[in-house]
Amino acid sequence: AMVLGGIFNAFPYTTYSQNVGLVQLTGVRNRVIIYTCGGMLIVLGFIPKIAAITTIIPKSVLGGAMLAMFGMVMAYGIKMLS
Predict the structure, then answer these.
(1) Please, are residues 21 and 73 in contact by the beta-carbon 8 Å criterion?
(2) CA triplet 13, 35, 43: central angle to 5 degrees?
(3) If we measure between CA atoms, which residue out of 22, 28, 11, 23 comes closest to residue 70?
(4) Which residues, by range, are in coiled-coil regions (predicted)?
(5) Residue 48: which domain range?
(6) Please, which residues have CB within 8 angstroms of residue 1's CB and are 6 or more apart in sequence?
(7) φ/ψ of residue 27, rounded to 5
């Protein structure tokens, strides 16, 4: 997967800590839902007009979501240390 990422100038296959916060925040751990969302993102990648709709999300909404996710990651990290 990492070689394909290099060939297609994409991100390498890696885990991100934001996923831990997102799973903890939403409580969704079902693989079917994850696969469905992944498929929807792939479809959006092939239809740029529909994907452009996601650009109208206000920056304050994105900032609030990031604050919540990173806060959950930090809380989970502190929980692991104790």
Answers:
(1) yes
(2) 85
(3) 22
(4) none
(5) 2-81
(6) 12, 13
(7) 80, 5
| Number of domains observed in the structure of the chain | 1
Cα–Cα distance between 71 and 67 in angstroms, integer? 6
Compute CA distances 10 → 4, 13, 53, whole Å.
8, 9, 23
The Cα–Cα gap between 41 and 44 comes to 5
User: Which two structure tokens, joined as six digits, stand for 31?
Assistant: 């693989």
Residuewise pLDDT in 10s, the chain (82 residues):
667 777 877 776 666 766 766 777 778 788 898 899 889 988 888 888 887 888 888 999 999 988 988 888 888 788 888 8
Helix (H) or strand (E) holding 31: helix 31-46
20/52 Cα distance (integer angstroms): 27
pLDDT at 34: 82
